[in-house]
Amino acid sequence: MESQESVQPKRAFQLSDQIWNFFEGGRQTPKMLHDKLTLRDLLYIELNEVFPTCGLFVVGSSLNGFGNKKSDMDLCLMVTNIELDQRTEAIVILDMAMNCLRDKNLVRRQKLIYAKVPILRVYFSEPYTDVIVDINVNNTVAIKNTYLLCHYAAFDWRVRPIVIVVKEWAKRCGINDSNRSSFTSYSLVLMVIHYLQCGLEKPVLPSLQQKYAKQLNDGNNTKSADETSDMSKNNYDDWSYDDEYTLADLLLGFLRYYAETFDYNNDAISVRLGKKTSRAYVAKNRSPYNTLSQWRCICIEEPFTMSNTAHSVYDEAVFDAIKNAFKRGCELLKEEKDLDALMKMEPISLLYTSK
Question: Poly(A) RNA polymerase mitochondrial-like central palm domain: from which residue to which, for each copy (predicted)?
């Protein structure tokens, strides 16, 4: 647990103000969310003709509180309560969905993308040309982690601005691209939450899965987060949180934590437990999604499947560049106390290897 150095008051105010303004200027507006939910409802009406008992749930950044104006909408099409083979059965279902939507005036173009979790990418006509939709099938963990992250986003007002800034900084640095052996956005969100749980002298966040196990760990809970009740901090009034850290303190502390404090060789991140744990411990978790080969450069435990959300970070040369990016970002922000300077950092430069 690191000691938090506060930024000088005047410059802390300026940096905190920059962080908040960046968040306010780039976050998804209520109208954008309303339009996405309306589009989801229109798609559900069409898909329900082919899949009469289906559910269609918004998942990911459009709903978990960490979306911005450029966020696509991810949808999970639930057609059964049993596990499906994503390599075969999910492809068949997505192909049926594609045929269902093919001649609809609303749909401009579609593309089936074959991946570990295959998706149907849909582009739309007016008035939804700005929304791209990715549909997956029976990816129940996406529904659960959306629900969980909604709670974390609402728990403390500082969480969302820090996450939004970190994600954008990582994108500009070239370390938020799983196709190039770096982080997914989901991994970056878990890294921020972990830091706020146990990277400070006074924690900002608890482990919500530890405190509210029944609500958040129910294996049958596949609620869509937009259908849940209010998730404001008033629901968690038994948590003795600390309100003294500014946004500037937290952003600088986050970069310092992963530049200087976190032991990548021995430690693993577990938001589920709300603490650092050993790499050996998380690698031994029993899960159908878990294989020893995936625990390589950095270990970030997925809160529900117990797999490694950072398995995309497999190339040691890229990982060294990622760690250097945290160090450069930390040094730059300590020296300049300026968000614009941080966002203009040179991206990592490597000849990426292919999987």
Answer: 15-153
